[in-house]
Prior knowledge:
The chain has helices spanning about 1-25, 110-125, 145-160, 195-215; strands at about 30-35, 40-50, 55-60, 65-70, 75-85, 130-140, 170, 180-190. By secondary structure, it is an alpha+beta fold.
Amino acid sequence: MTLILIIKIILxxxxxxxxxxxxxxxxxxxxxxxxxxxxxQKQLRAVVSFINGFLRFFLRxxxxxxxxxxxxxxxxxxxxxxxxxxxxxxxxxxKKEKKTKKKKDSSKLSVIDWISFAGKVAPKIIKPIQFKxxxxxxxxxxxxxxxxxxFLSTYYMLMYTTNYLKRINIRANFTQPGxxxxxxxxxxxxxxxxxxILIFVYKYYKRRIRKKKGGS
Length: 216
C-alpha cells in the first residue's frame, strides 16, 4: 500500500508539472525590463508573468547584488539573493607541479565569434516577440575595442531587420568597458514558438563549433 501511495504521489506531481508546463507554453508570457546604468547607480529590474499572472518571477540587480523572488497568485517568496562583490573562496594550496604547456582550445568561440553568432540568431529570437514598450539610450563598450566596433556594426545590421530596435539608440565606447544609459522593454511572447527556434540555435551553434575546429 505504501509503495502504491508513493507511486500515486509521484504521478500526481509529474502530471501537475506537465500540465503547468503546457499552460506556460500555451498562454502568452508577459515581461517587463527596465534598467538605469550610471556611474553612481546601476540597476536592472525584470518581471516575467506566466498564465495570466498565476505565476510570476521578479529579478532585481542593484549595488552589484542580484535578488530573485517568485509569486504564486498573491503569495510572494524570495528565491535567491547574492552579492557579486563577495570574495571567492581561496582554494587550498596545492603541491607545485611541473608546468606543461596546454594547447589552446580551438573550439572556443571568441567575443567576436559570439557577436557574429548573435547576429545570426537574434532576428529569429526577436521575431515572435510582441513589443508593447521599447525605448532606450545606451553606451556600450568591451575590453577589446575591435569587439566593440563589431558589436555596434552587428546591432545596426539587426536594427534594419526590425522596426523595434530602431527605438533603442546604442553608441560605442571605445575607451572604457561597461554599459551606461537607460532602457525599458515590455511585451509578450508565446513560448511554444521558440521550440523550433531553439532547435535551430542548437544546430547552428554545433555547426559553428565544427567550423572553428576545422571541420566541414
